[in-house]
Amino acid sequence: MVSESQGSEDLTVPGDFFKEVKYFLCGNISDQVQKLLRQGGGKEYSYLTDLATHVIADNEDYPEVSEAREVYDLPVVTPKWVTLSARCGRLLPHKAFTPEDNKLFSGLVLCLSQIPEEDRKALWGMVTFYGGNCQLNFNKRCTHLVTPKPEGAKYECALKHTKIKVVTPDWIVDSLAQKKQQEEEKYHPRLVIKEEKKEPPPANLEEEEPMDTLPSSANQGEAMLGLDQSGLSLDGKKKLEAPRLLNLLNKSSCDQTPPDHRSLGRVQSPLLTNRRIRDITNSGHIDASGTKLVLSPRDSTKVHETIQISQLDDTPPYLKGDGELLEYHGHDPKINVPPDTCLLGCIFVIVDYQEQVLPAQLETWTRVVHQHGGFVDPGYSQRCTHLLCDNQASPFFKQAQQDGKRCVTAYWLNDVLTIKKMIPPWKALHLPTPFPHSIKPCNGQIIAVTGFVDQDRENLKMMISLAGAKYTGSFSRFNTVLICKRPEGEKHKKALEWRTPCLNVQWLSDIILGNFDAIKQMGLPKYQNFSASEPFQLDYHYVKAVMGPWTTALQLSQDALQNLSRNRVLFTPSPPKSKRKGSQDGNGTNKRQRNEPIKPYRRLPPEKTPRVLFTGLDIASVNDLTTKVQLIGGEIAENIHKCTHLVSTKVLRTVKFLSGVSSCRFIVSPAWVEDSFKRRCFVEEKMHTLVDQEQEAQFGFSLAESLARARVQKLFKDTCFYMTPNVIPRLDMMKTIVEAAGGKVIGTKPAVNRVLASQQRQGSPRIFIITCESDVQMCADYASNNIDVYSAEFILTGVLCQKMDFDSYRF
Q1: pLDDT band at 567 (very low <50, low <70, confident <90, very high)
Q2: pLDDT at 147 over 90
Q3: Where is this region: Disordered (predicted)?
């Protein structure tokens, strides 16, 4: 037994003292504690698993702590439990050694004043959870007065007591975000400039032309694409840097009145709104990464979306300068395209957005495009007319430019569906950015907005996020730029007093279009001009190449007009079940019979039933092959992990294909399905194993050999990966590929000593660090300790070849 008089550095334990302890370390655990655990025969896991018996953490702040308790029901103890157990010669009860809660606000008494009840409850919970006290009464016990407004009796009284700090609710939120109390002086409510009230409608609004109401959704379907203003990703978690897109909006949910394309119109659009804690000070803060703190989501509300387009008549926009006169067109002006078929003749290919929205939402986009006369192809081909993309970084964009295709964003499609006319892009948001989202040209800029309301303000928020700047609804000395609609108002007055640049929307538009020099040229006269009738109008000089295909009008054939009604019938929403019962189509065929599942020619035992997936094939081919597989007794797999046969025409670097190399028994060509269907039974796979000599030569591997290696042993068995935030492909895709190869992705950055230990000690999972150019500085601590970090190709090419190359992909 160890003497209690010994120092912790002299503690030793028998080799079997901790043999029953299987632990996961969380936080900064000292080397001495880790030495005791190893010396006593404890087993460390590099990732949290239900096989562990203890989680050792230095505080409660780590997400693994709550996960250990809520998901795995594991005890969480402090490092002190290890040392005291070693001193006492026995494993002590773990209940007395749980980590203490973070006492960030310990000793503080906060008086909450003039805060709405819903937000007050949220703030109250935050403060008390982190050790502070809250009250509504203002007395001598108070250390802080939390109020959004510099007014009221409590505020006046607090000013007379220098020991009482007066702050806005942002002080609490930012202190929690930074994990330390912020300077109170920066959060005084007198620094907050409130938003101007909504402007009254124009005096000549009654002179606008009347607007026809859209048909109901039962006849027309969804009307337009909805843009997400909520700041949340689709799963409610932290979103990516690019603005995300919601479902297509249903017209029946709102009163939509699209404008005639020659007039100034107003359209009502339901957008998801969330009450944020910063709404108390009217700021709705968005940081550079696009994160918003949502405390109390409320029901969706309707807001007015103001469409202000200066060139929506039949006269196309022009680009003049340097002796040039370029004219841009949508449809051929000689053909009168009905508003409800405004996408007639448009064939879209969607790229980039697969990483931003769910597959079900993309299907909804496809349906709405079809309802308005257009078509969506599953893959790029020469028949494509429009490439729907987010930025210009993808190879699809470069190919589309070479082929003279029109490249636009989902924002353009949304606005076109709103105004019911396919016209050339007129906003910077309508064109793909010339830089990927990892580049932040306005990083460090803190931008406020004045004079813009409703959808114009939301568009500016999106533009600020795309530029990589931080948006604040309030205005203070910390703002670096103020975007003004007109040189007036309280914010503008304060900006002049504090010498903050006041710029128009064109400054932000130019940056998004790739003119990064505008960041250093804020004093140019064109950025000080606030008299433009359409402040969002883009400067076509910066987008000559992208706008090139718009110089030629989109031609329509008579067949397209004649086939329109037939195509629209295919995508008409199905009637309710009560009306569908017993109904028949034009040929007398019962619809219920048409939707019955396919009955196979023969049924196979479960162990012999192929479970098939397809990749790299168009939708028509997939549907045809799926029917044939099911008719001869096969099944379509739920996911790649349950797939036995992956069907592809060539070697691809898709998530499905790379995962299939590690997990599927066979990767075959479509000829395997065709041959099996002809013989009414599944034939030998060997004759139809996929062979792609071009790709195999390019990457220096043999697919057959890779599949053989994967069957013997998983490539990433006993291997863990940590990936920095901006690694491409994104984390969920890489996680699927890694797990299919037997590996594990950890979400928390591992300590240097853990990585070193994992690579030096046999029997424990190895940890590899995956990073990219923009995140390489985050790995400086690994480099200084001679720990290699790798690019994503270490995983992607490694899985394809089924071997780890430690030299080619090292940073």
Answers
A1: very low
A2: yes
A3: 192-216, 570-606
